[in-house]
Amino acid sequence: MPISIDEFDEFDPEDRRVTNAERVLRFLLQHRDQAFKAAEIAGETGVAENSIHPVLSRLEDRGLVQHKEPYWAIGDLEAVRNAAVFQSTAAFLDDELGPESRDEWLDAAEEET
Fold first, then answer.
1. Which of 11, 77, 96, 100 is least surrounded by Cβ atoms within 10 Å, i.e. has the fewest?
2. Residue 101 has what pLDDT?
3. Cβ neighbours of residue 61 under 8 Å, at least 6 residues apart?
4. In this structure, which topology does domain 5-112 adopt according to CATH?
5. Could you report the per-residue pLDDT of 44-93, keeping only the tens digit for each?
6. Residue 4 DSSP SS3
7. How confident is the model at residue 99 (pLDDT cuts 50, 70, 90)?
8. Which residues pair with 66 in a beta bridge?
9. What pTM was computed for the model?
10. Confidence at residue 74, expressed as pLDDT on a 0 to 100 scale
11. Contact at 8 Å (CB) between 12 and 106?
């Protein structure tokens, strides 16, 4: 999908940054034979220490990491693979069709009732 020259001039590839969750998962996957303390993960991934526990907790809720106080390790590899496929598919669809709009979803739901 083309963009205007004004959008091009303001375009920053870093806007498509990797999320904190992706950084953590990539790091733990690369070191799947080890377990780390949260502060170690934060230091290795560049995720702020005040953000690392919420990120790890959300990943644990999804089965993507496992936790035995005080250590964290990669979780079920099939779950991690499925999450990566989903994220990749969603990004592709956003690129092809544009991002979803919550307002459009709400408007469509109102029309259905």
1. 96
2. 81
3. none
4. Arc Repressor Mutant, subunit A (1.10.10)
5. 999 999 999 999 999 999 999 999 999 999 999 999 999 888 888 877 88
6. coil
7. confident
8. 73
9. 0.69
10. 97
11. no
CB–CB of 55/20 below 8 Å? yes
Is it the case that residue 37 has pLDDT exceeding 80?
Answer: yes
- Going by C-alpha positions, the residue among 21, 28, 17 that lies closest to residue 67 is 28
Exposure string (b/e) for 82-107, b if CB count within 10 Å is 16 or more? Answer: ebeeeeeeeeeeeeeeeeeeeeeeee
Q: How many residues does the chain have?
A: 113
- The Cα–Cα gap between 31 and 76 comes to 14
**What pLDDT is stored for residue 25 in this prediction?**
95
CB 42 within 8 Å of CB 49: yes
With beta carbons less than 8 A apart as the criterion, state whether 85 and 70 touch. no
C-alpha 67 chain-centroid distance:
19
Contacts of 18 (CB under 8 A, 6+ apart): 26
